[in-house]
């Protein structure tokens, strides 16, 4: 252990200069370092064995805090999918501690955790009764509708710049670029009709999910633009593509979908799980990164908006599972 510490840690005289991160003890009287908590690419500056603390340069210390936050966040995400809990995704950093690197590591880890949990939950689609499957798909349409309205509200609040221009282009595409029949909610409704959902059932949204979506709109109106960027810019454009890709992977292997594949209108899924939406996600990320560089003080609100989106999104889907597959939720 001593040789390993010598290889990893250097410059003990620099201990007092840098922030400290607590380390774990391995057994009675043996001081050990939890090396798994060290972010890739960051070399610790020194080890304070007596006080069981590691000193890192400031940037590495921020990344360490972020790593601890991500792991806490992943646990919170997992808990948020339980029907017995209220979703929580704590943002542990204070206003002055965010930087671009820690924010994007946080965002990437949250997205990966969301994707893994979505994959776990969406497996239920593969064998869901056909009527329940239709109801499940119908409930998603309300997110699509409210997303468009919220994106328009966000655009009205953003300053002129690359992010505003990009999101306005995405909004135009969502609305059919001047052709109402090409608006994405209309395209999705054609998919629903092709799997046997009657038109008179399209407006029967779950009351709790309508409340969630209404609360997001209210927060969009009341909070700063940066919060809205996290909530509907990252949350809507980036997380939405993640969820839809996972949903489609499990949806298309359902026996009913396979038996009727030739007559089902797949256009919505071609748009939202194909290259076009992946490009949207990458362009949105790049535009938000530029926004962060121009407005570094916006990082805390941006992170809070993204956190809010994750918890609301997970609660939204859990409510749908509770309604469409209650017997599964009861034992999960």
From TrEMBL:
It holds the Pfam family Haem_oxygenas_2. InterPro entries: Haem_Oase-like_multi-hlx, PqqC-like. It comes from Lysobacter soli. Gene3D superfamilies: Heme oxygenase-like (1.20.910.10). It comes from the Bacteria. This is Iron-containing redox enzyme family protein. Signal peptide: none annotated.
């Amino acid at each position: 252990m001593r040789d390993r510490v010598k290889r990893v840690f250097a410059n003990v005289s620099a201990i007092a200069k840098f922030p400290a991160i607590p380390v774990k003890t391995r057994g009675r009287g043996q001081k050990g370092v939890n090396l798994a908590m060290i972010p890739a690419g960051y070399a610790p500056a020194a080890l304070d064995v007596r006080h069981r603390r590691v000193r890192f340069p400031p940037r590495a210390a921020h990344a360490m805090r972020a790593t601890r936050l991500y792991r806490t966040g992943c646990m919170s995400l997992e808990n948020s999918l339980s029907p017995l809990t209220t979703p929580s995704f704590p943002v542990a950093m204070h206003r002055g501690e965010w930087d671009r690197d820690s924010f994007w590591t946080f965002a990437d880890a949250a997205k990966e955790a969301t994707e893994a949990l979505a994959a776990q939950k969406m497996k239920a689609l593969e064998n869901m009764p056909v009527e329940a499957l239709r109801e499940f798909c119908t409930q998603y349409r309300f997110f699509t509708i409210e997303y468009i309205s919220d994106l328009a509200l966000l655009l009205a609040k953003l300053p002129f710049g690359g992010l505003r221009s990009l999101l306005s282009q995405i909004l135009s595409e969502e609305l059919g670029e001047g052709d109402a029949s090409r608006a994405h909610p209309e395209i999705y409704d054609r998919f629903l009709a092709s799997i046997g959902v009657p038109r008179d059932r399209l407006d029967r949204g779950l009351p709790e999910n309508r409340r969630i979506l209404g609360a997001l709109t209210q927060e969009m109106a009341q909070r700063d633009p940066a919060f809205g960027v996290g909530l509907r810019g990252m949350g809507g454009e980036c997380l939405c593509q993640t969820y839809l890709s996972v949903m489609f992977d499990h949806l298309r292997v359902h026996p009913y979908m396979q038996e009727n594949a030739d007559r089902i209108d797949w256009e919505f899924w071609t748009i939202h799980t194909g290259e076009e939406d992946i490009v949207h996600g990458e362009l949105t990320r790049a535009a938000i990164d530029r926004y962060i560089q121009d407005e570094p003080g916006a990082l805390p609100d941006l992170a809070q908006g993204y956190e809010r989106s994750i918890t609301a999104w997970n609660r939204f889907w859990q409510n749908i599972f509770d309604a469409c597959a209650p017997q599964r939720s009861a034992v999960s």
